[in-house]
Amino acid sequence: QSTIRYLTASRDKSARLWDVQDVSALAKTDATQADPVRVREVLALRKHDLGLTSVQASGDGRTLMTAGLDGRVILWPAP
User: Is 66 left (phi over 0), alpha (psi -120 to 50) or beta?
Assistant: First the structure.
């Protein structure tokens, strides 16, 4: 079982941080079941007036950066 974090940028003017947990080792295997994952939204960032064009995390993971069609770049403290 492992957890990976993903950042997404969206036209809905938000960036989101997700925990994606692979639980395939815990699940029963059968022919009709895809590899199960658990997805949990950790954080939603909403301050842009238009859709986002990019999102990035700093190397140490302590800061997130979002850029949007509104021409703004915002730095956010990461949880």
Answer: beta
